[in-house]
Design a protein that fits this description.
Residues 184-235 form the HAMP domain. This protein has 9 helices and 14 strands. The strands form 4 sheets. The protein has a 5-stranded antiparallel sheet with strand order 4-3-7-6-5, covered by helices on one side. The chain is α+β, with helices and mostly antiparallel strands.
Length: 450
């Protein structure tokens, strides 16, 4: 609407300007035309030796020969005058004698036509001096008047205005139509964005497409970033709840195993206190992990063996029917530079997976990795003597929610948690065959700090 109103206002202003320009030019042309007629008569008029005017043989315009044509010529002399044939009939206003060289444009002046009606004329007059035989004492003045019907200019203006506003009206309609088409075409990408956004809101699409004009790319990219962020947040919350449930599974299994065993009341109390404390630590860790991502860059070094011993004691109780034992080969100088909860999750999931698939032996190895000025790296390896993992199934087993054997109880998210933690520390996880025990080997390499 604003563009249409602006266009109409522009056309109206342009029409008004053209109208005023035409009126001014037409008025000036009329003055020039009357002046040229007067000059033509001045060149053709002659006087005899007695000072009598000799009428011109030809007229500058044929209308001067038609009575009442609307174009009149008159010559005023000191003792009389002359007028064209067109002055017969109408009563023209009286004319005065002007001084030589003087000009006068006046009007509109009233006249009475031959039919008795009234009209108006515009009159131009110019004074001349006639020098008879080069005798100064014989000089006499005379004035030439040219008159034209005052309705001539308004009629021309009416014709011009009719044509002007007619053409401007047609041009305005055409321009409005073109403008509507251009606006519809130029706003088409916005309508596509709205349509795609509705599809995203309805769940029919996951994100906005990338086929948009460069002016809309920041908008669509921001919408995609927002959608992706919300999706990641939702996925992160789901993973956090699944990770918490998976972390609490081991302490609960230990408690169930101890309750079914022949342990004394004192042993049960001690075990319950130990596992409750661990569950509290797990809940606090997972809540803290859900509130923030990543890890502390300047965390204090954490010893590996105490945490490993605590986890292995619980797992040996759970898998006591297997008689599985875990051996340690831990370098005293090896340290985990990160959150203690991350170390517990890392060791807990790797060792639990190894105990689940081992026949009788599990091996935990910890070595100092690549050194750096600030802190060294760490290499952790967990081996078992189980059936191992075929190379073609390694990528499948590492997916969240996938278990190596659907017949074995579990949630299939332990190794996914390990990957998340290793990725958070910019480390690498390698899965292959154990060269010592013959089963599976999970190798974690954490880079050094600079």
């Amino acid at each position: 609407m604003a563009a249409s109103l602006g266009l109409l206002a522009f056309l109206a202003a342009a029409g008004y300007a053209l109208d005023r320009a035409f009126v001014d030019v037409a008025s000036q042309l009329q003055r020039d035309r009357l002046r040229s007629y007067a000059s033509a008569y001045a060149g053709d008029i002659e006087f005899d030796r007695g000072g009598n005017l000799i009428p011109p043989y030809t007229q500058p315009d044929e209308r001067f020969d038609r009575p009442g044509s609307g174009l009149y010529a008159e010559v005023v002399l000191p003792g009389g005058g002359w007028s064209s044939e067109s002055t017969r009939g109408p009563q023209l206003p009286e004319a005065e004698l002007l001084e030589g060289g003087a000009e006068k444009f006046e009007g509109p002046l009233p006249i009475t036509r031959a039919d008795g009606t009234y009209g108006e004329v515009l009159r131009y007059g110019k004074g001349f001096v006639w020098d008879l035989e080069q005798r100064p004492e014989a000089e006499f003045p005379y004035t030439i008047y040219i008159m034209e019907d005052a309705g001539t200019l308004p009629q021309q203006v009416r014709v011009f205005r009719a044509a002007l506003w007619g053409y401007l009206g047609i041009a305005g309609l055409v321009l409005l139509l073109v403008q509507a088409l251009v606006l519809r075409w130029s706003l088409l990408p916005l309508r596509r964005v709205v349509a795609e956004l509705k599809r995203v809101q309805a769940g029919q699409a996951n994100r906005m497409s990338e086929l948009h004009p460069r002016e809309l790319e920041p908008l669509t990219e921001s919408i995609n970033a927002l959608v992706e962020s919300e999706r990641q947040n939702l996925e992160h919350q789901r993973n956090t709840m699944a990770d918490l449930a998976h972390s609490l599974k081991t302490p609960l299994a230990v408690l169930r195993t101890r309750l079914e065993s022949d342990a004394t009341e004192a042993e049960l109390r001690e075990e319950v206190a130990t596992q409750v404390q661990r569950m509290n630590e797990l809940v606090g860790y997972q809540l803290g992990r859900a509130a923030s991502t990543g890890h502390a860059l300047f965390a204090a070094p954490v010893e590996i063996e105490p945490h490993a011993e605590q986890i292995v004691r619980g797992l040996e109780k759970i898998y006591a029917d297997k008689g599985a034992v875990c051996e340690f080969e831990i370098d005293p100088a090896a340290r985990f530079h990160g959150e203690p909860g991350d170390l517990q999750e890392l060791l807990g999931n790797l060792l639990e997976n190894a105990f689940k698939w081992a026949h009788s032996r599990v091996l935990l190895t910890a070595e100092v990795g690549e050194c750096a000025p600030r802190r060294p790296g760490l290499v952790l390896a967990v081996d078992d003597d189980g059936p191992g993992i075929p190379p073609e199934r390694i990528a499948h087993v590492l997916q969240r929610g996938v278990r190596g054997d659907e017949r074995v109880q579990g949630h299939g998210i332990g190794l996914s948690i390990v990957q998340d933690i290793v990725r958070g520390y910019r480390g690498e996880l390698e899965v292959g065959a154990s060269p010592e025990l013959g089963g599976a080997r999970f190798l974690v390499r954490l880079p050094p700090g600079l």
